[in-house]
Amino acid sequence: MNSMFGPETKFFKVTNKIGNILLVSVLWLIGCIPVVTIGTSTIAMYYAMVKAVRCEEGYVSKEFIRSYRQNLKTGILLTVIFLVLAAVLWLDHSYTVKQISIMAGALEMVYLLLAFVIAGIVLYLFPVLSRFTMDAFSCFKLALFMVFKHFPTTILLLLIVTAGIVSALLIPVPMIFVMPGVCCYVGSFLMERILRKYMAKPETKEDEEKWYYR
Length: 214
What we know:
By secondary structure, this protein is mainly alpha-helical.
């Protein structure tokens, strides 16, 4: 019995990983409570998910809080910007959808394209901020470049997030406590493959052992 539930068994490792994914979800939800900190919480979620859950280095709560504190101001600023952009797009959409004209139809297509681009930027921007030590504007430009450079991955990531949102809307409890972490965990396999393409190559054996190169 002890061998089945010991800390080195596959059963323990799997259940521990599932528990950590759920913990990241809960931490993300708590971090999002002020609303303007959604971006900050998302940066911290991705950082903790890859470092503590996938690479098993450090503790989930400790890594989450550390990243949250480091990116608090930047995350708030970006969250406010994206919330304003979303509100403007929604108001414009609400107006044009009531109009019946060729111009209204064309504007609706423009709004949909802008919504896609903004959503794509959001998907890449927060993981980029969690990984690179660049200013917010440089990270924004890199995220915009990634949206189109890695277009198939962008579509897959959007589908993953959409599936998570739909699940949480259909079954709020328990999905709202599960899907943030699940979407982040699944999406990180796609995201890490991309982020590594923009990282400097490890120069030494010690560098290769660092968690972000694993």
